[in-house]
Amino acid sequence: MVNDPDTLTGVVLGGAHGIYDVHTDTGILRSTLRGKLKKAFAHAQAAKSLGKERFRRDKMLIDPTYAQRMERIEKRDSGEAPLPTRLSVGDYVKVRRLADGIGLIEEILPRQSELSRKDTGSTEKKAIQQTMLANLDQVVLVFAMAQPDPHFGLLDRYLTICEAIELHPLICLNKADLSHAVYVDEAIALYERIGYRVLQTSIADKQGVEQLRELLKEHTTLFTGPSGVGKSSLVNAIEPDMAVKTGMISDVTGKGRHTTTGSRLYPLSGGGWLADSAGIRALTAWNIPPEDLAACFVEFRPFLGQCGYGDCMHLDEEECAILDALAAGTIDEGRYRSYVRIYTGEER
Ligand SMILES: Nc1nc2c(ncn2[C@@H]2O[C@H](COP(=O)(O)OP(=O)(O)OP(=O)(O)O)[C@@H](O)[C@H]2O)c(=O)[nH]1
Ligand SMILES: [Mg+2]
Ligand SMILES: [Zn+2]
User: Fold this and answer.
1) Longest distance between any two alpha carbons in the chain, whole Å
2) Ligand 1 in reach of 233 Cβ (< 6 A)
């Protein structure tokens, strides 16, 4: 089976109701999970008593791949272990090409990471983790240098989420062609000092666009940031054909573009994937437990464990190593304020 030329490795771009679009080297395959087809197989078995040949012929009229599919399933159905059936956008899969544009997902490959949303039901206890995106490994946090003026408190919020789920963040300050306030330059220096990569880009003069495109290669990246900062403009500059491509994918699924549930991935011509805005909801829905928050501020880390109290929350406790570092100017005041704001649950 490993050498079967019809078995390909692909990436799940999107899906709904048990039908998934899988991107492979030979195009997008509209695919079902093997488990789903098992049900169809059971249905076919039941139909046998009604006259197998007639059922087959009728079925063939509405689905030309039916006979082929059933044959393959019959062959494979003997004594194999069940496969995982929970599939997410971003999953790498083994998919069997059954016909032009049609596939069968046979195996889900191990995930490198997953971004899940805590679905809190009627009771807290029933909260379940729903995976929104698999294998996402990078987030580009886009802000404008001006118009609108950047709000670094919001950037800190995004950064802590990235740190909490170990997603690599890139800070992108767009509209570098516009004149901007001094505090923006100070912030750039600060974020670079604490270890973040800060890109300055502009659509107007294409500054930093090539650099950004390079950084997206071979990654699965989510773009996020406030409205009007130029996220769409950046994506279009990086991938001019993106709009065309998304249109094509919509045709394959036969669905409109305004899907409200689930995320979608878009292939980048340079290699790698871009996650769409549904992933953003998953990201911002993330709640960091208060006791984990300080460690999500990267520059706080060297001081953690050095406070007088083991359970120090670094708010007004005595012998607090974080407050000492703040007083000494080692920790930036604005960043500390962000810590307090997020800790106390203040809106921005
Ligand atoms: N001067 C300047 N304007 C830009 C730049 N990038 C984008 N813009 C403009 O900023 C406005 C907003 O850009 P969008 O790409 O729609 O912003 P967005 O982040 O996708 O906004 P939402 O979709 O609302 O979240 C548009 O008028 C763009 O032309 C830039 O680098 N420099
Ligand atoms: Mg946009
Ligand atoms: Zn402390």
Assistant:
1) 85
2) yes
Q: Confidence class of residue 102 from pLDDT cuts 50, 70 and 90? A: very high
Write down the mean pLDDT value for the chain.
Answer: 80
- pLDDT-derived band at 18 (thresholds 50, 70, 90) equals confident
Residue 135 in contact with residue 165, Cβ under 8 Å?
Answer: no
CATH fourth-level superfamily of 7-108: Nucleic acid-binding proteins (2.40.50.140)
User: Taking the domains of the chain in order of start, what are their residue ranges?
Assistant: 7-108, 138-284, 290-343
Ligand 1 atom nearest residue 207's Cα: 31
- E-strand ranges in the chain read 7-16, 19-24, 27-33, 92-99, 102-108, 114-119, 128-134, 138-144, 168-174, 197-200, 220-224, 265-267, 273-275
Q: Whose CA is nearest to atom 10 of ligand 1?
A: 230
- Please name the CATH architecture into which domain 138-284 falls: 3-Layer(aba) Sandwich (3.40)
Give the range with max mean pLDDT: 36-50, 66-80, 176-190. Answer: 176-190
Q: If we measure between CA atoms, which residue out of 323, 324, 289, 268 comes closest to residue 11?
A: 268
Residue 200 β-bridge partners = 173
Segment (H or E) for 158: helix 152-164
Considering only CA atoms, which of 143, 121, 158, 136 is closest in space to residue 201? 143
Q: What are the structure tokens assigned to 276, written together?
A: 């769409």
